[in-house]
């Protein structure tokens, strides 16, 4: 029996509903391993689960990505062994813990050269970027794209990867400090949406043509403006709700604004099978090895300080990636 320190919530609400607890964990069952977690990723989806925006069964331990070391293996597990360095990018939920049981079907080995903090910071976010720019809308060299929140955890990875693909990136940010960070990670043009009209600037940068794709994880505050940044038959990729969910609207708006396409992907559907999980994580590890993407861990919190970490993330006080240390 292993005793794990966890963060859990018994009701939905603000960061204050997160509380420390201890849980006894049994030996791993068939197809499972016990992981001692070394670093845990913090993601906006964690706040959606906690707030109730994305309902989950309660009580719950949040978190979908982490990295650590296998301490025990269950029956039938042959592809992993005790001592393996491992990580996961897509849950199941329960990452806010010092130890946890995990199904091997959703687990990958960490290659040499990728440390625990980088893995925890990158896995879910890089898997999100991979599905956005390689499979939702496959970006080609020379294309100009708009990526909102370019200095955020997903945004910095996207800027690096898009630059490696030869794309031109227009990134929105909330301050000049964040603009500098985004540019340092490959963003071609930055727009401070607090002081500039991002629609007008995108049209100016593209000589009035607009962009073929907008990646919008901000939500309601930018959605309609994002549609106005698209070129004819452009694709709107709405993948997050940092400022709240998008309000209902008539599909006719898509026709009026240039026969636009709209998709609302979730990374979980792009790594739902073992084949897709390996496709995505192999692409991430290849990009890391090639130097195309690197972790930018700019905030570290102790696991017990998860409420403070959530407050920092939701107030947009963070840049790059944030991790929790058990």
Automatic annotation (TrEMBL):
Q: Which GO terms describe its cellular component?
A: cytosol
Q: Work out whether the entry's keyword set contains Cell division.
A: no
Q: Which InterPro entries match?
A: ADH-like_C, ADH-like_N, ER, GroES-like_sf, NAD(P)-bd_dom_sf, QOR-like, Quin_OxRdtase/zeta-crystal_CS
**One GO molecular-function annotation for this sequence?**
zinc ion binding
The record's section on SMART domains has: PKS_ER
Q: Where is the Enoyl reductase (ER) domain?
A: 13-324
Keywords in alphabetical order, please: NADP, Oxidoreductase
Q: What is this protein called?
A: Quinone oxidoreductase
Organism equals Gimibacter soli
Source organism phylogeny? Bacteria, Pseudomonadati, Pseudomonadota, Alphaproteobacteria, Kordiimonadales
